[in-house]
Amino acid sequence: MRIFRTTQGIVIESDGQYFLSASNDWDSFLNRDDLFQELKKEIQYLHPDGDLQNLLRNKILAPIVSQEVWASGVTYMRSREARMEESKDSGGGDFYAKVYDAERPELFFKATAARTVGPGAEVLIRRDSKWNVPEPELTLCISSSGEIIGYTIGNDMSSRDIEGENPLYLPQAKSYDASAALGPGILVMEAPISPETEISIQIKRTNQVVFENNIQLNRMKRSLPELASWLFRETSFPNGVFLMTGTGIVPPNEFTLAVGDEVFIRIEGIGELMNVVAMR
Ligand code: DO4
Ligand code: MG
Questions:
Q1: Lowest mean pLDDT among 96-100, 202-206, 231-235
Q2: What is the pTM of this model?
Q3: CATH no. of 68-278
């Protein structure tokens, strides 16, 4: 099943049928440990509505209201290599090698809801950066009690020159207006997501593909429950939280995003998140 936050209310998709939920409160709707079972119960009392599918073409909002967005770093070998390369002149490379092998993962605060955009919206690159990339990441939706209740697509926009200059600049490289995108909806399942799930990205510039790649979740060094449980150590999230799980795809060093680029991120079972790159 998938759930969508839209301008007209909360839409539930189940086996290709679309239902408008009786609830209008995204925070309480989402924050339920037994979300899958609750959705199954709710749709028994609702009528499918084919028009809702059209609504989903352009009225989807980011699936976030009061939640925070956190992110994991260096969870794939490709990210480890890219960070070591970009920070070798600053002497920061070792930190990335160490965190890849350490028991404690790298977790960082990424965005508030106000700095997060939904499908079709603009993601921003910083004016004070010359080297920017999108990071396509499976993103966990976690309830306030720490249960993984669903999965969505995240784009962890990143300024590689800023984080490469000094690892202490990470918050500025990662966290600024419209630096995070989430959506389109949240996949809610009875069983955990398959490790064979593929994440893919395509970047188009004036309709030409300038970068594309894909990776399977099973290339991740850490497990999803492991990342979630570290996040909840000594930290509470009364409305639940989104946790990006790190990127396994980093474009070659000569690549940087340009204004007008279209970023398409697909994850099997969840859908496609498209955003346009802008600068303000
Ligand atoms: O430490 C740098 C950030 C790593 C990151 O965002 C990732 O691996 O996805
Ligand atoms: Mg990332």
A1: 96-100
A2: 0.98
A3: 3.90.850.10
